[in-house]
Amino acid sequence: MDSELARIWFQRCKSNRGLLHAFLFSQLARNRGAQGRKRPRGSPELVYCHTETLQYVNEKFSQPTTACDDDNVLAVAALAYNGPARTETVSRSPCQGPLKALQVLDIYGGLLDVVPMHLQGLRRMLSMRGGLANLELPGLAQQMS
């Protein structure tokens, strides 16, 4: 990630309590996914950050001017793409030849399911915004695509 982009996103996260919890929720969910079944599904930290993120999103939805703003899109994306850890067998990344470089995709694709309800809401929010091209936060449209 570009250092300027990382700085912008980090600053946004530091100044916004709801986004901070959304980012923490994402990381805790990814950690849980990486550990598989070794950790309980709902650690107190994960549940707390999930609850705080939901409250933040609901507050933003109550105001027409903020319902579909970039911050809320980002928070809903955190909820949508960090579902429960998959329990079924997941095929491994290719591990030979030119496809070996694709192994890093497991870091981002991971072993997490999406949450259909939040994914549907995210699609609707993006539609109401007029598509990805209307997102203003640098890098957000790329992340959504």
Written description of the protein model:
This protein has one domain. The model is unreliable at 103-109 (pLDDT under 50). The longest helix is centred in the first third of the chain and has 19 residues, at 17-35. It contains seven helices and no strands. The protein is globular and about 35 Å long. It starts with a helix and ends with a helix. Helix 2 (17-35) packs parallel to helix 4. The protein has 145 residues and is an all-alpha fold. It has helices at residues 3-14, 17-35, 44-61, 70-80, 105-109, 116-129, 140-144.
Topology:
Blueprint: H1 3-14, H2 17-35, H3 44-61, H4 70-80, H5 105-109, H6 116-129, H7 140-144
In short:
The chain has 145 residues and is mainly alpha-helical. Helices cover 58% and strands 0% of the residues.
